[in-house]
Write a structure and sequence with these properties.
- This protein is mainly α.
- It has one domain: de novo design (two linked rop proteins) (Up-down Bundle), CATH 1.20.1440.
- 82% of the residues lie in helices and 0% in strands.
- It is built from four helices and no strands.
- Helix 1 packs antiparallel against helix 2, helix 1 packs antiparallel against helix 4 and helix 3 packs antiparallel against helix 4.
- The radius of gyration is 15 Å and the shape is elongated.
- The model has no long low-confidence stretch (mean pLDDT 92).
C-alpha cells in the first residue's frame, strides 16, 4: 500500500466522520448530541494539520500538530462511546477507531520529532 500524506489522510478521515455523522443525525435523541461532538473533533484533526503546514514558527507547527493529536484522541473516545452504548455496531466503527488510533500514533511521532531538543 502506498503511503498517504498526513494532510490527505486526515482529510479522508474527516470525510468518513462526516458521513457517519450524517447517518447519526437521522437517529435523533442522544445520538445527535454525540454526533455533534464527534463531528467537531473528527473534522478538527485535519483542520489543525492543515493549519500547521503554514505555521508561523516551528513552535506554532508543533502546537497545531499537538492539538490535532488531542482531537484524534477525543474522536477515538466518541467512537468508543458509540460502540459501548450500542448506538452503532462495533463492526461498523472498528475501521474508524483503528484509523483514529493510527492518527494519534503518527501525530504523536511528528510532535516528538519536531520539538526542539
Amino acid at each position: 500500500m502506498e503511503s498517504i500524506d498526513i494532510t490527505e489522510r486526515t482529510f479522508e478521515f474527516a470525510t468518513r466522520i462526516v458521513r457517519l455523522c450524517q447517518s447519526l443525525d437521522k437517529k435523533g435523541g442522544i445520538s445527535r448530541t454525540l454526533q455533534n461532538q464527534l463531528l467537531r473533533s473528527g473534522t478538527s484533526i485535519g483542520a489543525n494539520v492543515e493549519e500547521a503546514q503554514s505555521g508561523q514558527s516551528k513552535a506554532d507547527f508543533v502546537s497545531k500538530i499537538y492539538i490535532a493529536c488531542k482531537e484524534a484522541r477525543e474522536t477515538r473516545y466518541w467512537l468508543r462511546l458509540l460502540i459501548a452504548t450500542d448506538i452503532v455496531p462495533a463492526s461498523k466503527l472498528d475501521p474508524l477507531t483503528k484509523e483514529a488510533s493510527e492518527l494519534v500514533a503518527i501525530l504523536t511521532s511528528i510532535t516528538k520529532s519536531a520539538r526542539p531538543r
